[in-house]
Amino acid sequence: MELLNKSLENLFHTNIKNISMNLCSKGDVNSSYIAGYKEQKYFIKIQNKKNLPELYENQIEREIIGTSLCEKEGIPCPQVFDYNLEEKFIITEFMDYKLLGDLWRFLDDEERKDIKKQALRMLEKMNHIKSDSFGGIYKNGRIGQFRLWTDSYKNIVETALSDCCRYGSITEIECRAIRDKVNENCKNLNQKKQSSAVFAHLDLHWNNIFIDKSTRKIKGIFDFGSSLFTPEYMGYFRLNGGFLYGTDCFYDQEIICPVQIDNHEYQCAEILNTLDYFTFLSFKKLDYEKEKQILLK
Question: Transmembrane segments in this chain: where (predicted)?
Fold first, then answer.
């Protein structure tokens, strides 16, 4: 990683031998490090390059674009200092706050409710980021850009099915059954007025949010590697099971989903959400039968 080392030397103004690199997360899609010298620190994300699902392509480019779009709407994000799309790394500000996931069990009901409201305000700001097309937030990717949401929806599904066929977790007969289900869903979606394309993080959970421990305020949102332009209901749907990392639902009697999601939109969101997780489990060679049954039901 000669280019990464050079970037770090320029940021720290010292030889790479003097810079510590501590692994903080060795993920399946990305690995993260904290680089330090004296009192100065930076956060580094490196995209893994081997056999990744095409559904997760361009993680670093998504991170850069997502951060830029959100900053313009006043959404707090770590500042980007350097990146390289060929070497697939990004260097950002080190935010000296706590991850929400590490604090959640220590919060009382009112604090949890307030943080949920803060998250909904962040999502509302993301809904102000409009696009003329649905799908990829970058050009010329496997996940394309489309004028119609249903065309983008089908493209995302085909990308994921291609990945899963490659990993051997699904048969062609099962793929046809899922395509038929998606096509029927698209016919129903096309019968109503199309929503606007808005920016969706699609992975906004408690380990991607920095919180000030003393004020209980959101100080940073990061990890835009799943972000797309979608109808706004997609972002709200993903919060429900994803925000608390599957431990509980986001919405309750007091925190109500601010948009109406009809049955056809719900089916669309459920298919894409399940297919995303099914692809990840297939890539990791983990048990995916529950997700497959949801897709085939």
Answer: none
In the chain the first and final C-alpha atoms are separated, in Å, by 46
Q: What average pLDDT does the chain have? A: 96
Between CA 8 and CA 210 the distance in angstroms is: 24
The backbone torsions φ and ψ at residue 34, rounded to the nearest 5 degrees and listed phi first, read -110, 120
Q: Is the pTM of this model over 0.90?
A: yes
pLDDT, tens digit (0-9, with 9 covering 90-100), for 184-221: 999 999 999 989 999 999 999 999 999 999 999 999 99
List of domains in the chain = 2-93 (3.30.200.20), 98-296 (3.90.1200.10)
- Pick from 85, 77, 193: nearest CA to 126: 77
Q: At what angle do helices 263-284 and 172-189 cross, to 10 degrees?
A: 150
- Single-letter residue type at 176: R
For residue 5, the surrounding DSSP H or E stretch is helix 2-12
